[in-house]
Amino acid sequence: MDASSENDDNGPNGLVASASDGHEGVHFGWSDEIVDEDSYEAHEDSGESDWLENDNDARNAEVENEANRNRPAESGVNEKEAAGNGENETDGADENDTEENEVSPVGLSTGEETDYLGSSDVGSYETDEDGDFVSRKTSKVFFDSSTSEPRFELGMIFENGKQFKDALYAYVVAHRFDFLFVSNRKEKVRVVCKGKGCPFVVHASWDKSDSCFKIKTLVTDHNCSVTFKNKRANYKFVGKHFISKIRIVPKLRLVDMIRLGREELNVELNKQLCNRAKKWAEEKIKGNIIHEFNRLFDYVLALRTADPDGSFDLVVERPTAVDIPKFRRLYVCFGALKEGFKRYCRHVIGVDGCFLKGSLKGEILSAVGKDNNNQIFPIAWAFVEGLLEEVQQCLPHVEHRYCARHMYANWKKDHKGGDLQLLFWNCCKATTQPLFRKHADRICKLKPKAYADLMEKDPSHWSKAFFSTRSKCDSIDNNFCEAFNSAIIGARFKSIISMFEDIRHYVMHRLVEHKKKSISWIGEFCPRIAKVLEEHKARSSFCHVIWNGADGYEVMHNEDRFVVDVRGWKCTCKVWDLTGIPCPHVVCVILYREESLENYVLHLYKKEVYQELYSVVIPTIPSEKYWQDSGMGKFDPPLKRKLPGRPKHKRGKEEGEVKGKTKLRKL
User: Fold this and answer.
1) Are residues 220 and 152 in contact, defined by beta-carbon separation less than 8 angstroms?
2) Cα dist. 392→389, 401, 544, 552 in Å?
3) Long-range pairs for 201-207 at CB < 8 Å and ≥24 separation?
């Protein structure tokens, strides 16, 4: 196989090697000596990692010579050259060594000329025929840190030694073999396969000319057997792999980590290692939560700077002047969403809360409106440590509605039965008070106690018959808030700033996508409104109009008679009044008058208004490192409260929900 000339240029003193971070031990040469992880890290942090090689230079040369002697002849390196390479490894190679003899290892490229442009390197520009400066293509190959299974190429460039060693650990774990350090210094790293006689070798060192860490020698062939218990897969390596899963599923079981390690990492793990890795990951997540809470003031300042018209309130509590402030709540409402709702949406707001799912505990409260196509339009959201005051106490002068679905879930606990269920929903959906009274009386006759319990809640909060017609919305449930809670479920696993940024990105993406989607719509109105209008037109064929010769119209529908006031936009059934969409009776009258239906549909339902709504823009915000320092100091995140008793792992089922089987059926 291949080998290249080695350049052992000494790197800057500030480059810290960290190949043994988190490893239980590091082998040197063919001896059984193991350097303890903690002692290595302690010396590494103090900048004294060179002590590792003071007594091993002779042993390292012997190991390298042994590896070179066992390397196959077709590699292009004879024993004499291999011995010379070993001496260079110990004593240091000439700084002017080049890589002229590079030979591509099997299955890997050597970094052929690509479209990658190096804009900051010396000589990265050249002149074209017209004398203009153009970027010169480069043959440099840079390591891709986003890949889950690293690939090495001769001449590949790394940011520093730590990145190279992290990639090396992932490489050997993925390919199921272990290695030994021949050289493990700040400025160079050389490893060989642990299997005796195996030709695998990787040498990387600091390159002064390019100011980077570069692979100088690479032989990828193996003639040793694979291993399923790799010491390089230590608790830090496993913890880094599982940290994203533990952030989403804090109660990830050790047996599941072992199974996932077998499937994803191709390595056998044990419970002790997984437990240590999980604790390490939890500490990292906890540290991230504290860090983000300490930067909340800076985050709010960044929001206010980007959107002066928005409302961003961070509330903390400090009992005394010497106490560290404690977090209470964070409220976010962008100016574009606020103005878009006020100008283009119907004036109805759904308010709901949902619990966070990850390590951070608390609730997300959301205020969601309905857009012109009867879909959700997020207005504002807030993170709170606990429940706030009731909305009715905060807004006493506005119309309040209850979610009928939740009402029924509580009511049916004591009053079960299909007849009662049907009558309950008939009461909710009745658009006139006489019709509501008819269904309510039937409940009273069927079960007086059920009627009494139902009437404890004022019908003006949950029946269409008593709703105001100002909002032009006849919703009797709060499903649009729950739809928003479901849309942000991924963000609810993260810490506070990451969560709020995910929600902002979701809303930003939603605005753009809905505007694009509306361009292809056919017709004057939004699709869902047009569908309802078509259904009403079909039902109007069963209606018959009686005209009084002026502005009075009576419409016969089956055995019922309805009065339609075209000028006042009113009908006896109250559907037109509540929604702004002509009911079948109004449609029949308009067709009788030979007029256009579009003139009698609420203008907010038009496609052009929908596009205006979704033309609002949420401002962009740079990443954390570019935020200004608010100078407000730090404060404590909310404490995790431990409730008495054994913790529950499953959500409590409501009455009527299908419960999954938890025990096997006896045969």
Assistant:
1) yes
2) 8, 10, 44, 41
3) 201/3, 201/67, 201/71, 202/152, 202/168, 203/6, 203/89, 204/158, 204/161, 204/164, 205/6, 205/7, 205/8, 205/9, 205/11, 206/9, 206/10, 206/11, 206/12, 206/15, 206/161, 207/7, 207/9
> Residue 351 phi/psi, 5° resolution?
-120, 130
Mean pLDDT over each residue of the chain, to the nearest integer: 77
Coil vs helix vs strand at 333: strand
Please give the Cα distance from 254 to 247 (Å, whole number): 15
CA distance between the termini of the chain:
63
Contacts of 647-654 with C-beta under 8 Å, sequence gap 24+, read 649/251, 654/409
Residue 556 burial (CB count, 10 A): 15
Nearest to 563 by CA among 72, 426, 374, 571: 571
3 state DSSP class of 393:
helix
Looking at residues 562-575, what average pLDDT do you find?
Answer: 93
**Rounded Cα distance, 635 and 319, in Å:** 13
Q: For the segment 456-489, what is each residue's pLDDT rounded down to a tens digit?
A: 999 999 999 999 999 999 999 888 898 999 999 8
Rg (CA), the chain: 35
Torsion of Cα atoms, 245 then 249 then 252 then 257, to 10°: -20
Residue indicated by tokens 């008939």: 426
**In the structure encoding, which two tokens stand for residue 327, read together?**
């977090």
List C-alpha distances in Å: 227 to 42, 363, 638: 30, 47, 45
- Condensed to tens digits (0 to 9), the pLDDT of residues 590-603 reads 999 999 999 999 99
Token pair listed for 478:
């709060």
**How many CB atoms are located within 10 Å of the residue 417 CB?**
12
Instruction: Dig out the tokens for 92 from the structure.
Output: 């240091």
For residue 60, give both structure tokens: 């390292």
Residue 155: other Cβ atoms inside 10 A: 18
Question: Residue 375 corresponds to which tokens in the numbers above?
Answer: 């879909």
Distances, alpha carbon 514 to alpha carbons 177, 366, 478, 510, 548, in Å: 51, 20, 22, 6, 46
Q: Calculate the dihedral angle through the C-alpha atoms of 28, 30, 33, 39, rounding to the nearest 10 degrees.
A: 10
Strand partners, 183: 190
Give the position of tokens 């499953």: 650
Q: Where are the beta strands (DSSP E) in 376-505?
A: 376-384
Residues 6+ apart with CB under 8 A from 239: 22, 276, 277, 278, 280, 281, 284
Residue 328, SS3? strand
* Residues in Cβ contact with 114 at an 8 Å cutoff, skipping those fewer than 6 apart: 137, 138, 139
Q: For residue 68, which phi and psi values (nearest 5 degrees)? A: -70, -35
Q: Are 515 and 615 in contact (CB under 8 A)?
A: yes
Q: Rounded distance, CA 552 to CA 562, Å?
A: 11
